Amino acid sequence: MLPPSCNRLVGLGIATFTLIVLIFIALHQGGGSIQQIKEAAKNAASSAASSAQTHLTTKPTSFGDQISQLYQSIKHPVDSYHYVDPSGMEFKVTANPSWKEPLGNDVLIVDMDTRWPDGDNEVFGKTKLNWENVTGNEGGSMLTASVLNHFMYAQIHGYDYKFYRAEPMEGLHNTWIKPYVLSEFLQSYRFVVFIDADATIQHLDVPLEWLFNKWGITHRTSVAMPIDTRQILNGDENASCDSKGKVTLNTGFVIAQKLPLTLKMMKAWKDCPTEKKYKGCANWKENWSHEQRAFSEYIRYDFNPDGDNIIEIPCDDAMGYPGLAKNHPHILSDCKGRFVRHHTIDKSMTKTSTSDALLNSLTDIMQKSLMRNKLKYWVSEVERPKEFLEKFKEAEDKREGEE
């Protein structure tokens, strides 16, 4: 594509050439064409000015626009009632969809961490990334893989994206930053979606709005989190349950909607360890599972008046990953992370899942392009032997002639 300055010169050149031709014709037709020359000059000047103005006001296409356009052919409709993944598994929306239009940049996908992925061969580092050498190991390399996955997903669907590098909080485990950062961004966005550093979106073509419909997230839902994987720790089969025996919600994937109830909920969550309201919550300042256990032990019971203010996402949809239960016998829930894989144990698999998600989507795009343009790319000697051989011979003769 020519730069705007070149385009303006081309437009001016065409206008000038047109004017010269009209003058030449007028001179050969006599004096009655002077008015035509004036009109032609006026029109040529107007055309050149219009061309220049168009190029001055045209905004360059952003990276997000380019990615969104690339994925246009495979983006799943927001209001569809079903989805079939690459393995052939079908998923259905069973209730009337609450969300029928894309939310775009009303949604923020945020990565928040106290670690900096800005070292050598890391996503915010100064050197060019070598994906082959990204290990996916816990720390900056794992963050590199997940950030790329989350950022790409946001670009595809027009969501905003931020990486929030938080400072450690004195007297609290680092994961306690979640209610603070969520509260901050809820001031500016309708939805804030947090995805953990060891979690990845697996179907890049599926928008959040469709998942909202599948999971029953409505216009009055404040928060949605997945049911945690059950596990045995130190012989305790109820290690993943709260004191009432209910499995905890995992805060590695949090969807928060800006509502008055949500903001009150976030404040109660932040204040929980002070024990001003919730006695015993200070136990979870630094003991596992920190803010996660505090939310499940106290907050979820006080902020769900309508039954859908807090949504429990199925474990199989947004927890675990293929092989988790098989390879780790202490894991009791065989959750495979159908839409969001959360690599709570095998952290380095974050890279593998990022690669799988990207390649699955790109191969789908390429396959659809090849099939749409099959007549252009597909040549079958069996279907058209005579035509094929004639064209082949013509090409050979032409090449020999050039030699």
UniProtKB/TrEMBL annotation:
Highest classification ranks of the organism: Eukaryota, Fungi, Dikarya, Ascomycota, Pezizomycotina
Keywords assigned: Glycosyltransferase, Membrane, Transferase, Transmembrane, Transmembrane helix
Membership in a protein family: Belongs to the glycosyltransferase 34 family.
Gene3D superfamilies in UniProt: Spore Coat Polysaccharide Biosynthesis Protein SpsA, Chain A
Key word Repeat present: no
Pfam families in alphabetical order: Glyco_transf_34 (PF05637)
Source species, domain of life: Eukaryota
Gene Ontology CC terms: Golgi membrane
Protein name: Nucleotide-diphospho-sugar transferase domain-containing protein
GO molecular function: glycosyltransferase activity
Listed InterPro entries: Glyco_trans_34 (IPR008630), Nucleotide-diphossugar_trans (IPR029044)
GO biological process: protein N-linked glycosylation
PANTHER family documented for this protein: ALPHA-1,6-MANNOSYLTRANSFERASE MNN11-RELATED, NUCLEOTIDE-DIPHOSPHO-SUGAR TRANSFERASE DOMAIN-CONTAINING PROTEIN
Residue ranges crossing the lipid bilayer per the database entry: 9-27
Coiled-coil region(s): none
